[in-house]
Structure formats: C-alpha cells, structure tokens
C-alpha cells in the first residue's frame, strides 16, 4: 500500500506535464 502513493504522485506529475504541454 505504501508503494501506491509514489505511483499516484508519478502519474499525477506526468498527467500535469502533458496537460501543461
């Protein structure tokens, strides 16, 4: 479960990067 938090952060960061670009 602890491994899920960084995964969501990474997905959110990538999604925000694509939205910003």
UniProtKB/TrEMBL annotation:
Organism domain of life: Bacteria
Name this protein carries in UniProt: Prepilin
Natural source organism: Escherichia coli
